[in-house]
Amino acid sequence: MSASVDEQTPRRRMLLGLGWVSFLVSLLGPVLANVRFLFPNVVYEGESVLKLDSLEKYLVGSITFFADKKIVLFREKDGFRACTAVCPHLRCVISPFVGAPGASPDILRARCPCHGSTFDGRGQVLGGPAPRGLDFFRVTKSPDGRVVVDTRKVVAPSEHFKL
Amino acid sequence: MVTESPKETGRRKAVSWIRDNRVVRSIFRRGYPDNDLDRAAVMFSNFFLHVLPARTHVHSLKPTYTWGLGIISLFLFVILLGTGSLLMFFYVPSTERAYSDMKDLQFVVSYGVVLRNLHRWAAHAMVAVVFLHMCRVFYTASYKAPREFNWVIGVLLWGATLMMSFTGYLLPWDQLAYWAITVGSSIASYPPLVGEYIRTLMLGGDTVGQNALIRFYVMHVIVLPGIMMILMGVHFWRIRKDGGLSRPPAPPAEAARGEAAAFSPHKTYMLVELAEGKTPMVDAQAPEEEVMSWPHTVFRMLVVFVGVVAVLSAVAYFFDAPLEELANPDHPPNPAKAPWYFLGLQEIVSYSALAGGVIVPAAAIIGLMTIPYVDRNPEGQGAWFTSAQGRRITLWSVVAVIPVVLVLTWLNEHYAVRILVPGASQIWVDLLNPGTILIALFAAGSLYTWRRTGSSRMGALALYSYFLTSYLIYTLIGLYFRGANWAWIWPWQATGLH
Q1: Looking at the 3D structure of chain B, how many domains does it have?
Q2: What is the pTM of this model?
Q3: Residue A45: phi, psi to the nearest 5?
Q4: Does one domain contain both B159 and B235?
Q5: Partner-chain contact B205 A40, CB within 8 Å
């Protein structure tokens, strides 16, 4: 269709444009549906509420590293704290915390083997590329007296589960 | 006329019986092309040869111009399709079976180990050759008009080649695979806003597990090869439409299209050649500058193919593809290294994930794609490094980058943001690291070269040489100078993985 014909028939031109617009809009639905299809609604990736051993198994001053559950449990004289063992940089599992038993959290150190990020016992980044500190999780007690860590609830690093 | 001996008559009859019988004729239609008419016709009548022109410009056949890198990439791709299809018969993409299927291929299946080796080494070779091909095209200024968009398709093909390698990396389900994909998919979560969605889309969940394995498998065996075949088809088709491979422009008097002088009186032209006016036949000034593609091009391709297969077979026979122990989600190997072609990026990721995972790759891809649209003058097309000045600028750009990268690496070891200010905010780590500083320096150096010489081509030469050299240095650092916890080591201190 040449331009001159178009100019003579503005109504036809408008209808043609309307047709194109509705065609493109109608494409949007199927495209979005296909993208949405690729995002799973249910994933089976293990538990987010982790049940550990009974309270008295963890001695005051001990730091327990759970590689399979990817958490670290601190038993301090004020109570329990738990943080993730997954490095916030690129999700490698960090090495266990090192430091004398009962040492202050400021002295404890953990490193990530992948790119060398360093963290202290409060989860703070001391060096390396990690963009933020380690997340700390809410610790509670189960009715049968076991330690429960809820990885869905992030809390302040100083928050203790007091006995 | 000399009479044939009965023996010769017999041989001639035997050859003719094989070559000229009804079945062979029904397949190949014209018999063996032993004259120029048939040599031209074979390019039209054979499906697999029709992508080639009937005649090829002699410049396109110079080994020192192309180094055969494009065609080697194609052959490696074909070898990968063949070996990959065979491997698929013995591989099940399940977290419970994948690793033991690899072990079976190594120890139980006849020739399984050779096929896996061929597939692995061909993949490594393709990553290297495609990159070298891009360097050849860049340094001969072959991305210039009318080939700008074909360069863009080439950059996409490079990206697709890397994605093919990355998706194939997870399939053995060993330690290296598991942690390389954990790290790689986490890098994908760094772009602002969309990052986490990209990562979920890649993994089909939140951790590298069964969902991730099947997604990577489908990408590796169907989606990416399909995309690559389409892109390659367009890539080759555009080479033909743009008049064959790039070469130095013809002298002005001859090149004036539409004038009688542009056409050789010794040739016959077809309408299709005159319509576009830039096929190899019209561009060639004289018949002696072009040769029949059969046999000159076709048989060179055959020789290159045999050479590629021979070298790969030798490597696959003597060197086994590595396979580590079964993937263990509890413990990353220390150091956890990406495949060698991503080690340069991993080095920058170790400074800042945003810099190495998003800023640097985005700058590289966008920079590469826009080069033909920024450097628009036709200067230097078809000549290595454009000119003596271009050669000098390339050399000095390469030489200048080496100390800059080394000094930045040293500074980062001793005076990185978090060493000077422990617990410094992430914004400063993302902004002030060797990766981002280099991008700024490269842009400045390239613009300065452009200003000084008044030539965008010189600026582009400098920029590409900076990019190439720093990429190589960071790859070498990642390969030989990084040990446990990604700490700096000397190559002789390396103790292997763990």
Answers
A1: 2
A2: 0.89
A3: -125, 30
A4: yes
A5: yes
